[in-house]
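If you are new to this repository, start here. Below is one unmodified record pulled from the training split, so you can see the exact layout before writing a loader.
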Amino acid sequence: MTSVRDREEDDQRELSVRPTDEDPLAVSGSELIGGPAGRWARAAGHHWWNPLRVMVLVVIGMFALGMVQKASCYSGAWFQPGDPQYIHACYSDIPHLYAQRGFSTDLVPYFDRIPTGMSGSADLHYLEYPVLTGLFMEVASWLTPHGSAQHSAQTYWAVNAGMLMVCAVVLVVCVARTTRRRPWDGLFVALSPALALTATVNWDLFAVALAAAGLMLWSRGRPGWAGVLIGLATAAKLYPVLLIGVLFFLCLRAGRLRQFAVALGGAVGAWLVVNLPVIVWARSGWAQFYSFSRSRPTDYGSLWLIISERSGHVFTIDSVNAFGTALMLLLCAAVAGLALCAPRRPRLGQLAFLAVAALVLSNKVYSPQYVLWLLPLAVMARPRWRDLLIWQGAEVIYFLGIWYRLAYVTGAKHHGLTADAYHLAIGVHLLGVLYLSAIVVRDILLPEYDVLRQGGEDDPAGGPLDGADDVFVLGPEPHEPKHAAAA
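And here is the target side for that same chain:
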């Protein structure tokens, strides 16, 4: 006899939105595998192969393909002089930093100074990563047996790849469980070419998974634990602090500042638990990340690099910091204004994407793995295959562009991209981010275009904000909020 719980789960599966239910590109693409899902596919939802299990296997497969893409570097290109690792577009920071940051000699991050010969820079004395990322790197080094320099570096990369694969699975699960009735949205992340290509370039995926877990907990009405996860994500990478600002303006508009205060308290508490011991006992090592970020000059991938190289004007560190900060503040002010003035309160995913996109556009450096910061937020903001693939295509072009530019700069034969061609690759990346941002802004200003609101819902990922009335609005009279239950 069917239990009440089984009937509820069956009802929930029946209500779940599949990509082929509403996405024209998904419908067209599904013809390759037999067409859109029908009644037999719906019946199969009662079996073991539910959306979550399918997407976990898909992301593991894509992650494995990304590891295969690094095979030529793993086999030796990382350790050869010249540009082979750039020509094959398989560079990763992980094996290089194993020795350069003292992990091969068991130096303790933030407490032990890195000899100049290891770091390659007379100015770098400590690990220049946030504390929780440093702990991730250190744990991977504990799991790496000592051997020859090359073999240990290869093993260190493999150990980190295994740990980052777990982060990729967590990321997909969190995205799939964040937006009610849309578990298949996690497939956008699982099949992302940018995820496969950049997941093992650096350690950003760790912070991205933590931030995604925080947003999932917020969507489940747990602001305290959401704040804890966002605080931990900020202890691993600085960009998730923007999510706190996004929550503030959305909660201000909805009159839910108490929930924001709970999330803020959880975030600050979690960040302090991780950072405070290092601040107390290794303050100079802890401060290295912040001083390094502040003293970093104009670097690859940024708008400022194009301006500098095409105009011939060399930005000083102080000037690029000032221009970048000014542009960031201007863009964030626009996002805040949109939150308070839009005819209907923006969804959490929309505003979070725009805030992080503002950082990406204004920053003085854009490493190829930074695309991971935007990936789950883009899916929450605009779950449409066409728009996401246009943006992802631009990011893949930039991924190839940065390595071929480095091949040209470092190689004796100058195989790769000239400065002009590399500027074009940067421009493609910037236009891709701007395109998706423009689509998201249009959906905010014209809610009838918003995919998630066409079914009568307000903000499926909004948690305490879902269905809330507007209390503080600077624009015209707001629309009445809608909710799936009311519809």
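Two things worth knowing about this chain: The CA atoms of residues 170 and 252 lie 30 Å apart. The radius of gyration is 23 Å.
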